[in-house]
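Please check these two lines:
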Amino acid sequence: MSARAVKTNTISPDAEQMLQSMDAARERTHALIAGVSDEDLQAVHDPIMSPLAWDLGHIAAYEDLWLAHRCGGLPLLAPDLAGLYDAFETPRAVRGEIEALGPRDALAYMSEVRARSEELARSEGIGDGTLFELVLRHELQHCETMRQTMGLAGLLPAGEPTLHATGAAQGWSTIPAGPFEMGAGPDGFAYDNERPRHTAAVGAFRIAHLPVSNESWMHFSEGGGYERREWWSDEGWAWKQDHDITHDRRLAAGPPQAPACHVSWFEAEAFARAHDARLPTEMEWEKAATWDQAPGGSESRGALEAFGQVWEWTSTAFHGYPGFVAHPYREYSEVFFGDTYRVLRGGSWATSPRIAGPTFRNWDLPIRRQIFSGVRLVREA
């Protein structure tokens, strides 16, 4: 279901390639919700998640704001919807209570916005491509967010999640001490929080080849992992007690040797402590992921095997790098800086390969486990 217009001979190869990528992302969005009823698209399936139909309207409003309006200088297609679909003006807690567009109207809005974006690309080009890439990746990221909602509601398409066994042997790689270049370089697209590239000094450490498996997590759970106070931080224990937390039910149902998924930071920290280990710092994780002395492969990144099946928690709070400059707007990441959020790295089975990479930084609250998150352990060298 493409919004593409008839091609002309005036469009640049870069613009044509971008439009093709945007079409592919849109087809991915449509395919994701193809089997979901209108009722389920409009329902609030969990208090911390948006109705799926709101996500659709938000994808459209974001695209119209950044491309037709801010890039092309055109009036917004639907000014009355701008605040409704602004993530800060309309927080998740109220998205199920407002009169948002129904599924069909939201899809029509997406199509109309895309027609304007394509016309802009054909008539004016895409400039350096930054804003078009921003919009493209925004939709791809929302496909993963929508999958989180669908996972909580039991609405994922057949065959998902695509977590698979990685092998029983854990094994460790020793990463030597020394500096390395951290963050994205100056060329190409990167989010503001990935820059500037800078030299980071890291001591020697050992990092697990594989993320923790479902089988290992269930051993931890069945062995008293959620009762042993000494393994939990004060904040983690209070959260666990207040909400009667035990392992996510989907852990027990997954393949035993697949990476454990839907693990909160508090749980990951407790698991690490129970195994005489710890979570990697963000610097350690990136150095291991980019370590050029490790054999590479389709399932590895540097010293890390089974890369990209689950997001991997780090011990690092989310802050800007030295010399950080917000771009193109501070609400993307700067407003989340501080000691509240923890950084995740690597990507998940639901993350587009266009986004997942060794410098990409995700972040979330330490109590969250609707995300496709797991853990990879580190020990001292």
In short: The mean pLDDT is 94. The domain at 172-380 is CATH 3.90.1580.10 (paralog of FGE (formylglycine-generating enzyme)). The chain is about 35% helix and 10% strand. The longest helix spans residues 130-153.
